[in-house]
């Protein structure tokens, strides 16, 4: 059979930024466009997979045949991801999850205080969604876990570290220091690393700058091949 065929497979993908509320009208977020995650969802659906796309707030159309689950905060994304991961074969964490959220969300709009030129916000760490799911081995076999790593230096070392520390099967590393690539851009380049699993050796694949659509297709194909190799099919 085609080593990259995805018929009968369930794929869950997180995408976009998260939005962390401060009060009823304000939030903390980042500039993630969601383009890479949506391109991955499209590529997986085209391979025949059943795709669930868990997305933070983005201005993108849902790819054909993809089930979209809209979320806002990291905690909301974690809940949706945990539910979706239960019966998933492949889980790809492409979201730019906010590292911190407000310790307390103000019930009413935070007011300027006269005579005070500074405001202190106390933030607490958000859960690491992909690491939480990778660690959770209860129930059905854990999905094949793919994470992303955006780095400005020592790409391979930090990516390898992320692979190990978050207990992932594969990591897609982007050098975000290169002009015109990555965040918000149409194109991207990547270094894909995977670990040794059940008798199959570790490996790497260097993907030169190309459209996010082309890159997504290769990433999905590579993940499916590793997944099939692991399952011995
Ligand atoms: O640690 P860092 O944010 O660089 O890791 C990036 C990878 O981890 C991405 O796959 C991202 O989707 C995932 N992540 C996550 N939950 C977080 C932070 C990152 O799932 N709170």
Explain what this protein looks like in three dimensions.
With 233 residues, this protein is an alpha/beta fold. The strands form three sheets. The chain has an eight-stranded mixed β-sheet, sandwiched between helices. A two-stranded antiparallel sheet has the order 2-3. A two-stranded antiparallel ribbon has the order 7-8. The longest helix has 20 residues, at 212-231. The protein is globular and about 65 Å long. The mean pLDDT is 93. The protein has five helices and twelve strands. The protein has helices spanning 35-46, 74-85, 129-135, 155-165, 212-231; strands at 10-15, 20-23, 26-28, 50-55, 66-70, 90-93, 100-102, 123-125, 144-151, 170-175, 187-194, 203-211. The protein starts with 9 loop residues before the first strand and ends with a helix. It has a single domain, classed as 3-Layer(aba) Sandwich (Rossmann fold). Helix 1 packs across helix 5. Strand 9, helix 4 (155-165) and strand 10 (170-175) form a beta-alpha-beta unit. It binds cytidine-5'-monophosphate (C5P). Cytidine-5'-monophosphate binds at residues 14, 74, 93-95, 97, 126, 128-130, 147-149, 162.
């Amino acid at each position: 059979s085609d080593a990259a065929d995805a018929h009968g497979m369930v794929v869950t993908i997180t995408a976009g930024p998260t939005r962390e509320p401060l009060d009823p009208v304000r939030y903390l977020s980042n500039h993630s466009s969601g383009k890479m995650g949506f391109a991955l969802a499209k590529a997986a659906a085209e391979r025949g997979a059943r795709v669930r796309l868990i997305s933070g707030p983005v201005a993108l159309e849902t790819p054909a045949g993809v089930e979209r689950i809209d979320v806002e905060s990291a905690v909301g994304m974690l809940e949706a991801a945990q539910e979706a991961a239960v019966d998933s074969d492949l889980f790809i964490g492409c979201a730019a999850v906010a590292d911190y959220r407000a310790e307390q969300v103000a019930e009413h709009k935070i007011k300027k205080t006269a005579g005070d030129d500074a405001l202190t916000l106390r933030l607490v760490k958000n859960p690491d969604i992909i690491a939480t799911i990778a660690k959770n081995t209860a129930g059905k076999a854990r999905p094949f876990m793919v994470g992303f790593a955006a780095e400005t230096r020592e790409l391979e070392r930090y990516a390898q570290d992320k692979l190990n520390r978050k207990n992932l099967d594969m990591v897609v590393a982007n050098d975000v220091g290169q002009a015109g690539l990555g965040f918000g851009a149409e194109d991207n380049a990547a270094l894909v690393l995977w670990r040794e699993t059940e008798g199959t050796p570790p490996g790497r694949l260097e993907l030169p700058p190309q459209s996010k659509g082309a890159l997504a297709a290769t990433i999905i194909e590579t993940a499916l091949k590793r997944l099939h190799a692991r399952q011995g099919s």
